[in-house]
Amino acid sequence: MRHSLLVRARQCPPMSNIHDKDRYLPSEIEPRWQAFWDEHRTFETRRKPGSPKLYVLDMFPYPSGSGLHVGHPEGYTATDIVARHARMKGVDVLHPMGWDAFGLPAEQYAIQTGTHPSAKTAENIQTFRRQLKMLGFSYDWSREVNTTDPSYVRWTQWIFLQLFRRGLAVQSEIPVNWCPDLGTVLANEEVIDGKSERGGFPVLRQPLRQWLLRITAYADRLAGDLDLLEWPDTKQKQLNWIGRSEGVEIDFKVDGADEKLRVFTTRPDTLFGATYMVIAPEHPAVDRITTAEQKPEVQSYVAAAIVKSDMDRTALAKTKTGVSTGAFAINPVNGERIPIWVADYVLGAYGTGAVMAVPGHDERDFEFAGQYGLPIVEVVSPDGALHDSLSAAFVDDGVAVRSGQFDGLRTPEMKQKITDHLASLGIAARKVNYKLRDWVFSRQRYWGEPFPIYFPVDLDDPSADPRTGAPHKVRYDQPIAVEDSELPVRLPDLTDFRPGNDPRGPLARAVDWVYFQKEGRWFARETNTMPQWAGSCWYYLRFLDPSNEERIFSEQAYDDWMPVDLYVGGSEHAVLHLLYARFWHKVLFDVGVVKHPEPFIKLVHQGMILGENNEKMSKARGNVINPDDVVREFGADSLRIYEMFMGPLEQVKPWQTSGIQGARRFLERTWKICNGELCEAIDEETARLLHKTIKKVGDDIDSMRFNTAVSALMILSNHLASLEACPRQAARALVLLLSPFAPHIAEELWSRLGGAQTLAFEPWPTYDENLVRDDTVEIGVQVNGKVRGRIMLAKDASEQQALELARAEKNIAMYLEGKGLKKVIYKPGLILNIIVDK
RNA sequence: GCCGAAGUGGCGGAAUGGCAGACGCAGCGGAUUCAAAAUCCGCCGUCCUUACGGGCGUGAGGGUUCAAGUCCCUCCUUCGGCACCA
To answer: How far, in Å, CA of A670 to CA of A195, rounded?
Structure first.
């Protein structure tokens, strides 16, 4: 009885008797090492003269109320691996993190609860910081920035003033979607059939004073400098967005009036086929040229069109509408009178807001002409022959026909010739247009950066106080920049953050903030705020020198780290954020603040992680994976390993909870190897595998193929686990190779293997080329292109030797027997292909 | 419609034009266990064959090549972006 109890106790000791030392306990190891890194300031940025540098940047998060989701650690783990690997290679690394903390959700929450948005924002940041630390990222937390911090806002405003002083920030009355019932301006996406998406209230297209940033002035450079960048398809997306288009502007006389209409076209070669002209409803000449009898119809058409949102005007499958102005233009090449129409398929904001319509060679004009019975003339023929009727617009290049002296020219040549001809008459000029529009930069919101701008106030009674509602006029036409020394302009405290029914926004209610006196004169502050993009446009620059009170950053800090070598973030920012940031950078380049034309050299977008059901993760779908839960159950290292192992970083991939189990098993195995019996000698097979793994993991990190790097580590770990005892040098190297991926377990094992302090700066293992290269290899032997066997031979074996070995294989010999040898293809180390008679 | 990316086992995926399916998940069989979990060993594209082996296989169809998942052409599907930009 006693005996069996003893045996049982030995075989199955109660939990408390197992030395924690022997078990892999992420919940114990991980916080301990995080505390170590914090206490020892392990990852505070150091810049050593003469060392190479690497600036590895993550797109900083908006600290939402729901906390981190599993998508965040994907990109963040990737950059962390790159950063940790670089440190071990002796590179100085800048790897910072911060918060893009202005924005609507915090404001909505404030409206609902009446608490100040800064309170909720601070709380959310706490959560995000805790979660990021929990994942063991090697950020230099001493450089944390927060876009809502006044010391940060100060420099956002300072940059705005640079734009303002250069005439790149201007005010304009542009039509916006104003919803009086909701008391706010809405985005195009928030307007459906002229009503607000929420509530169904009427939305008016109303001109409202807005700040515009003249990004179009930089369109050419923003397009051209993409060539300097190591970016994925994002470049193409930006090019499409910028929409550079080379064409010609041509003047048409209006018949019987002293009026010219200028059109933009990319197809001047089709001028002979222009059978009517269309101007946009917003075109300034509409009123002047419309004949008396057409006036009522045109006016009502224009009135209806202008109120429509862009969405309504460009709605899919919508049939085109338009009305005749009754006026005619003269086609400059053939003197024909062509009718001028108003139609909203022509955009007022692009080109000249007027087009020459060539229904024979433009699909839109073809459709419109068919609808209103306008003539369709072929002037470009695919084969040079004349065709009397067209069933569809022919938009490809061809040969000019019905084009007078130009007949017979091919389209590209025709474009040149006719443009030269028109230019010599002084009625045309080559022109480049862009789809890109100027950037509407103001929001009628509370939780954003105030503009560092104020305006003079004209009072009817100069002794009155505008704060009491005395009649006055704000001179928006005379914007004044706040002095640099007075920055930042802080947000006033409000208790009610609702937008209200005033298009000036909630800040207008803070009358004591808005109005102030200077040298006896009253002034009013700008009450719009900046959009959320503002802070994220330049945060990568503040990381250089985040606590500099004197300057945006020091020149030394700039020279130390810029440009950003690697930038990782979601592709949802492919155009907006990444275009805006490039624009600001170029302005700062012109100001002389930065020295490189582009901020982000290499860009990578991590792919979205879908839910286990292959759908986008969302609360509504109930498929959200919470990193807190995953870390509690499996540990941060397992999460990191799994997310890197899922597949290529850029790819969209579904989460599989069972998959993370595999990552955990791999770490358990590695734990067991390193805590088990070690030996000093190393056998050749192990040495070869080890050195190959060292090479592969390094190469894979360099090319950001983390999934195959993890795979290589697993193969090594599986092999070492199969040995009686693990060679000490293999265990040490495995731990170092693993450390960028799973830093906590690696630090723990490293210290148990006798390593000092931290492995964060331990030299990255090197490999022996001789051990990486195999002398003896197994190659496939094909007969007539089909693999029939495999042979082991020296890497540099001769063709003769290879053939002999192949013939010795029974199966291969069978296929060769009695057949005449026609040809032998032998690629040493790769393949032997024997071609024989059939 | 236009631009871009991608289609490989049951699943995630791997493969400088040279042995398709590495590695992992799931599954199956076995060892261990009173039992289970965990762990360890083995099998694991598909069809034919007791086996040795063979046929077929990387969205579809054609082509180039001694050799194609990989290169070229046509098409289909999925995903992302743009969408009357003259």
So the answer is: 61
